[in-house]
Amino acid sequence: MSAGVARGNAQTRIGRWWQDWRFHLSAVAVIVPILCFPPFYTLAMQASGKAGLGAREASELQVGPFPLKIAEFNTDAPIGQGVAGDRKVFSLALCKGCEDRIRAVYLRVGKPRSIRAAGALFNGPPSRMTTDVQLPGSISVNDGLWVTVEEWDGTVHKGDIAIETASPATAQWLRRKEGSQK
Amino acid sequence: MSDAAARPEATKAKTRKKGGMARLWLLLHGWLALPIWAYVFFICVTGTIATITHEIQWLSNPEIRATRPAGVEERLGADALAAAVMEQQPGARLQSISWPVERHFATNVRVTDQNGESRSLYVNPYDGKVQGEQPTVDLRYFTRALHGWLFAPWTSGYSWGWYAVTILGIPMLGSLITGILVYKKFWRAYFKPRLRIGKGARTFWGDFHRLAGIWSIPFIFIIGLSATWFLVEAILSDSGVTLSTAGIPTVLERNVIPEVSLQSDLPPLSLDATIAAAQAAHPGLRVDSIFLPSNAFSPVDLFGRASIPLFSESASVNPYSGEVVKVRGMGDQTVVELVTGSMYPLHFGDFMGVWLKVIYFLFGLLLSMMVLSGMLIWTKRTTKETKAFVQERRAPQLEPGE
């Protein structure tokens, strides 16, 4: 017998099958990309905006004079991102023609005290901006999701939407967290 | 596999002479890849295809080519190109422009329309004509995602698919080292190559495995090392360790943003002036791509290949004043950052033009065949044993009266 990996001397039918086929079984790994492709493609369509503003129908939100649309990027509960905390992505569309007046839009959970604490800044073109908001441990499901609009001339407007409306999964996640803390 | 394994009649004597170590290396060499050969083969084949997908697209789709129209001599500057594209895409917002390093490819212009849909357009760099639109998942992205992370999700930190692929760098380096150790005086085969055809499959695949192996030593080393580095990068990133000295992304202070009542009151942003400002601040900066600000407080970002094509440089410019707020030249990066940055072009073979990609593709084919031939050597070697064994077992079963 030569050196190297030996074939083995199985006596049973199944043992012999194992000897002959064991090294080919990794071909089964091909199933992984086949199974992973549909969600991968869905995500690519969402990320490019071709699947709409968000995962569900966008909610209308009036902030000062501006009618905005807000939607959650996906229908999942917030995801823990290590030191960055639990985070959730939202998309926002400005009203058509409003982009000339609007300098920045911010998002946070709970009413902001000032523009300095307005929360996460939305990024991207006016027809589909996104932001990644942190959900601190102290918040409650009743705090509401607050959008702050800052105009180029410095005027600031605030508006809010219930977490339950903007993201049912986040509301449920918060309620579960609150329940476990009691 | 060893020389001895290629000549069964000489096996016994030779292995004894070689001693225990060679036997151990051969055993290790087999166990490193044989049990997962089909998976490794799959990754090697997809990686091989990935090196030339851009060229496949160029050959199969005229929209992606930078064909010079008759009568046009010069390529358009960034502003003229952007203006031409926006004229053809009314209502859309410009997001970025990328000029492929290989100049026979069309310029890539990314825009978002009024419905919030982002599209990447193939634009002729000479006349600014929009030639086509890149599919959301095109052949290049499909192949890279399949090869790089098996389409597994990137939910939090690196995808588990990334780990599943990059971990193969370890058995790949291991196979290389044990393969060299087991192949005594392999350098002699550079002068006396041997590929025996007509002496049976076992002999042929053994010769092929050794011959392809010795010629692929640098390639396998590059691929194995860079893959292992990608694994280390993921582990560091997911455990919160950063090697970057780039700092947090540049945010423009409120006091540098002009006071106007409407955005349209701002002077229009000139891309050409932005590029010129960056190049004045960092002479020799190559601009391969330009990203427009994603919000009112972010700068224009410019990226380009450095004078040594394995590395890259970048600059950030204040869009309101044209002031350069950040430059990251080669000299501003640490050795670790430069090494990290160079691993990607080294792994893809994308730093010396098409001819290197073709060389990578050919070596990729060889490496894929090495995996396959390694397995074939094992099966052919054990087929004899199997046949003998099965006949031995079956013989009594076939006796009448059972």
From TrEMBL, chain A:
Swiss-Prot/TrEMBL keywords: Membrane, Transmembrane, Transmembrane helix
InterPro entries referenced in this protein's UniProt entry, alphabetically: UCP029505
Sequence intervals crossing the membrane: 21-41
Domain of life of the native organism: Bacteria
Keyword Transmembrane carried by entry: yes
Protein name per the record: Thiamine pyrophosphate-binding protein
Automatic annotation (TrEMBL), chain B:
Keyword Transmembrane helix in annotation: yes
Transmembrane segments: 24-52, 160-183, 212-232, 358-378
Pfam families for the chain: PepSY_TM
InterPro entries for this protein: PepSY-ass_TM
Domain of life of the organism encoding this protein: Bacteria
Record key words, sorted: Membrane, Transmembrane, Transmembrane helix
Name of the protein in question: Putative iron-regulated membrane protein
